[in-house]
Amino acid sequence: MKKKSKVIILTVLLSGVFLLIIVGGVVYLKIKSSAFNIDKTTYIYVDEKKDYSNLLSQLKSTAYIKNINLFKQLASFLKYPENVKIGRYEITPKTTYLEAVQMLRNGQQTPVKLTFNNIRLKKDFAEVIGKQLMFNSDILLNRLNDPGVTASFGFDTITIMTMFIPNTYQIYWNISADKFMEKMKKEYDRFWSGKRLAKAKAISLSPIEVSILASIVEEETLSKQEFPIVAGLYLNRLKKRMLLQADPTVKFAVGDFTLKRILNQHLQVESPYNTYKNQGLPPGPIRLPSIAVIDGVLNYKEHSYIYMCAKDDFSGAHNFAVTLNEHNRNAQKYRAALNRNHIIR
User: Fold this and answer.
1) What distance in Å separates the CA atoms of residue 180 and residue 161, rounded to the nearest whole number?
2) Range of the domain at 263
3) Which residues of the chain fall short of a pLDDT of 50?
């Protein structure tokens, strides 16, 4: 009888163990299965509030998690709610429940591919960066307008914009505004390598001045082939101590980048950016110049051109001239084209 009882007890115990193994196996398979109903990569954001409830809402509304309760149970078991970490986290169609919790708990972020280009104004730059990173754009704008901050990087509140080289950078979403500026300064120093510095010195310009000139060149022409030619033209003017008389600087001074015709009233605007009135380069860039145009200035084309005028076919290309008479003929053709097309401003 005792033997039979032992057999029954052993059978029950084995059955229980077997059941636990089955249940455990089922749970393991679930937590190791794909957890999200998505067909492309998406991102979950955890800001400085470390709001676990908000995270759960994102998992449902953004990543379309299949079983939020399973996630919560696993997160609780691994003590994630007490260890929420700030960051930007990548969720793919193949991400499992276990991978998601471990990634979030360990703070395994995916960096942002931060991109900025075609920007003219400081406030626009701050907004573009603020949309891609965690900190508010106003925080960055305050740094850019702080003389003490900009001086610590070797710039003033106007030339600071030349520190930002348009490109794509790998940056963690939760970087602070101060750390962001430090990283951009390192990228700036890396960009201005020995070769570029030597070329800038050869044309008697500092890196800041090269960027300012490049910003004018890029506003003058969309053609990469023309960058070195236009750069050479303005360098000729600088050498001759002539006024640059660059129309884009007038547009910047007036605050209207849509102008097609620069009229006498525009040329009279009082601004340090009006190169029809002020000798030399303006105090700062009128846009963030691209790497291509900066290199176009550094590798400028030597020629005798002093004047340039947009072609009358509105292709964006230019006619270049050595003499004022030749330039006036080109300008007359362009004005006639504007009149034919009823372009008055």
Assistant:
1) 14
2) 194-340
3) 12, 14-27
